[in-house]
């Protein structure tokens, strides 16, 4: 599948600066052993400039998530379809979904800085200012037609058990879409190596069915990503 390019600048110098700054942010935010509090602090600092990496085509996970939702939910169903964007960040995805006819879009996002940027978009009708998988969760069970997580399952981010929460908040028959960095699925990775086995465990228990596992190029910095689509049973 061709990835949309949202480049707006031809200025090589600015682009190189953005790449360097992004690599520094990534090294800090995805450090092995990083605490959830440090992750949230890092996104607070990153919030006002984060979206540039989507606009400049460096980070493509939310674009892939968007394409997948549009592929799975036909235009005539979008108005009535409820969506929870988990680890919603700056709300880039919700803004695109709104343009495509979705109106019931909720966000779960622990970083206050990210939520501030998201709120300015004016498209999310409810915010859950909390972390998923690290404690009690106020999102009601059996509520959403589509639950999406783009780039939010990682070290210090949503723990592997957060998968169970995605299932809990989705309606029976609803879709759960998860976009992750391919290299993070290696069994040797201390955190994400457990992610795919847990997905399979849930499938073994009959909790959901894997509809698709699609590898795509250029999740970030031209590294492959995986788009998982599940249907809750
Ligand atoms: C790489 S950003 C992705 C943002 C957005 N989904 C996107 O693709 O543009 C990861 C987001 O996950 C959020 N996050 C971190 N830990 C989380 C948790 N336990 N539950 C929910 N979100 C979390 C961060 O605050 C951050 O906004």
Notes on the protein architecture:
The protein is an alpha/beta fold and 233 residues long. It has one domain (12-232): Rossmann fold, CATH 3.40.50. The protein is 35% helix and 24% strand. It has eight helices and seven strands. The chain has helices at residues 12-29, 36-46, 52-55, 61-72, 92-99, 112-121, 162-169, 195-204; strands at residues 82-86, 104-108, 126-128, 144-150, 170-181, 208-220, 223-232. Strands 3-2-1-4-5-7-6 form a seven-stranded mixed β-sheet, sandwiched between helices. α4 (61-72) packs parallel to α5. The model has no long low-confidence stretch (mean pLDDT 93). The structure holds S-adenosylmethionine. Residues 39-40, 43, 61-62, 86-89, 92, 108-111, 114, 131-134, 150-152, 157-158 line the site of S-adenosylmethionine (SAM). S-adenosylmethionine binds at residues 39-40, 43, 61-62, 86-89, 92, 108-111, 114, 131-134, 150-152, 157-158.
Task: Put the structure in a nutshell.
By secondary structure, the protein is α/β, with parallel strands linked by helices. The chain contains eight helices and seven strands.
What labels would you give this structure?
233 residues; alpha/beta; Rossmann fold; seven-stranded mixed sheet; 8 helices; 7 strands; 35% helix; globular; binds S-adenosylmethionine
- Average per-residue pLDDT, rounded, comes to 93
How many individual domains? 1
* CATH topology assignment: Rossmann fold
Instruction: Return the CATH class.
Output: Alpha Beta
First-to-last CA distance: 28 Å
**Structural class per helix/strand content?**
alpha/beta
- Strand percentage, roughly? 15-25%
Tally of DSSP β-strands: 7
Classify the helix fraction into a percent range: 25-40%
Question: What order do the strands of the largest sheet run in, or round the barrel if closed?
Answer: 3-2-1-4-5-7-6
Order of helices and strands: HHHHEHEHEEHEHEE
Rg estimate, integer Å? 17 Å
Oligomer: single chain
Shape descriptor:
globular
For the biggest sheet, the summary is: 7 strands, mixed
Give the uncertain stretches in residue-range form.
none
Which ligands, by name, code or SMILES, are bound? Answer: S-adenosylmethionine
């Amino acid at each position: 599948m061709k990835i949309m390019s949202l480049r707006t600048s031809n200025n090589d110098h600015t682009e190189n600066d953005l790449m360097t700054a992004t690599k520094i942010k990534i090294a800090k935010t995805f450090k092995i052993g990083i605490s959830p509090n440090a992750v949230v602090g890092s996104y607070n600092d990153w919030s006002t400039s984060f979206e540039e990496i989507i606009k400049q085509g460096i980070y493509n996970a939310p674009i892939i998530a968007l394409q997948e939702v549009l592929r799975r939910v036909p235009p005539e169903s979008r108005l009535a379809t409820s969506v929870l964007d988990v680890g919603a960040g700056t709300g880039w995805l919700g803004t695109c979904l709104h343009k495509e006819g979705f109106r019931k879009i909720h966000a779960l996002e622990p970083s206050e800085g990210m939520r501030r940027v998201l709120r300015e978009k004016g498209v999310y009708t409810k915010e859950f200012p909390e972390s998923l998988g690290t404690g009690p969760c106020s999102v009601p069970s059996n509520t959403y037609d589509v639950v999406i997580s783009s780039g939010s399952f990682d070290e210090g981010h949503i723990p592997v058990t957060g998968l169970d929460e995605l299932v809990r908040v989705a309606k029976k028959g609803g879709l759960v879409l998860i976009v992750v960095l391919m290299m993070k699925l290696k069994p040797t990775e201390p955190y994400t190596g457990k992610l795919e086995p847990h997905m399979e465990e849930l499938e073994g228990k009959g909790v959901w069915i894997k509809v698709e596992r699609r590898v795509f190029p250029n999740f970030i910095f031209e590294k492959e990503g995986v788009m998982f689509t599940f249907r809750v049973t």
